[in-house]
Design brief:
Helices cover 32% and strands 31% of the residues. The protein is an alpha/beta fold and 254 residues long. It has a domain of 140 residues: P-loop containing nucleotide triphosphate hydrolases (Rossmann fold). Strands 6-9-10-3-11-12 form a 6-stranded mixed sheet. A 4-stranded antiparallel sheet has the order 2-1-4-5, with helices on one face. Strand 9, helix 6 and strand 10 form a beta-alpha-beta unit. The longest helix has 15 residues. Bound molecules: adenosine-5'-diphosphate and magnesium ion. Magnesium ion binds next to helix 1.
Amino acid sequence: MLKIINLNVEAEGKHILQNINLSFEEGKNYCILGKNGSGKSSLATTIMGNPKYKVTSGKLRVTRKKNLDTHHSSRDTAVDITALPANERAQLGIFLAFQHIPEIRGVKVFEFMKSIYDTKTDTKTSFLEFKKIIEPLLKELDIDKEFLRRDLNVGFSGGERRKIEILQIKLLQPTYIFLDEVDSGLDVDALNTIAKHIKTINHRKNSFIIITHLFKIVDHLPIDTVYVMDDGKIIRTGDHKLIAKISKEGFEKL
Ligand SMILES: Nc1ncnc2c1ncn2[C@@H]1O[C@H](COP(=O)(O)OP(=O)(O)O)[C@@H](O)[C@H]1O
Ligand SMILES: [Mg+2]
């Protein structure tokens, strides 16, 4: 479980998130809704560990089941991640697909994927070993092998960038997967393709946390809990029915 306890966050001297209390349970999916500027991206990037967003009070915690012995008994262990850098949070299974994806000139997709894989697994795979790992995943996603030789995201279409993110998710198998408006700027076909892949990746041990204002993407995924944000606060919590209500009536009627 990823737990956010009384979180207050500041960026550039501005109080952006206020008293956020949330939890994300493994195996359940979530949707975070809210008007533009309500604090959704700030929340996601704070959870990922962006140092620009300063936690002024509160905590972020990851609880995991730890097997103690061969008799299958287990105990929960809690890790306080409030002060951990982003790479260590990634190792604990947190993943964020950004709303705005950076282009990185000079870094090939292959090198990038290999480096995040090596970091996550704490190994040093050889070129050939990694080729064997990545190529089947490319095939599953219907991505041309040619992509591995291109600069990361440079000249990629919206749909292609999202596919590269899905590739990262398949490769790293994170537990808490935050998707920040990954549906924006995609045409219907690209959206359906991405939604289909998300559905196949979703299982009992991971959680998707979907941030959207288009709603369509969550038609394809069972959503357990919906959080609504406004002005840096959580103003409503509900089940999937809240999505239909908001997509019909907007946020004003809440
Ligand atoms: N790095 C930052 N510096 C200053 N203000 C920020 C920063 N990031 C976000 N904000 C402000 O915090 C509020 C929430 O923004 P954001 O999290 O991007 O909202 P959303 O993703 O819901 O549209 C906005 O008023 C925005 O201007
Ligand atoms: Mg945003």
